[in-house]
Amino acid sequence: MSDIPPTVPPPPSPPSTGGAAPGSDRTLMVVLSYLWILFLVPLLTKKDDADVMWHAKNGMGITIGEVIAWVVYWVITYFAPSVVACAASVLSCVIGLGFFVLRIICIVKGINRQRFSVPVLTDMGQKINI
User: Fold this and answer.
1) Integer CA distances (angstroms), 106 to 19, 50, 113, 123, in order
2) What pLDDT shows up at residue 101?
3) What pTM does this model have?
4) In this structure, how many other beta carbons lie within 10 angstroms of the beta carbon of residue 103?
5) Closest CA to 103 of 70, 73, 65, 130
6) C-alpha angle 60-66-69 in degrees, rounded to nearest 5
7) What's the rounded Cα separation, in Å, for the pair 128 and 121?
């Protein structure tokens, strides 16, 4: 006979702990919650999932806050003298990058089943009943 031992199949992988159930779209819905107007998708389709609804309303609050910030910026640059308007262009970068970083933080926290609360904006979003 040969000296080759019989092959033994590898042990089965342990069951996964945590995370969403297979086929769940929770992660997608959390990401959509923070992508500007796309917060409407989870807000209108996942009314039975309290966690996704919280993130959708938080995303709505952040979007409303960003729109308000841009309107204020446009008013300042439209009515201000050219020197102030030129200096306000720096403010444009701060607004854009600030909200971009805020959205990335919220997405990462949401995917990890955590919540990132923005003081005024989260409260504004959570108070709106849909």
Assistant:
1) 17, 16, 10, 15
2) 93
3) 0.70
4) 19
5) 65
6) 145
7) 11
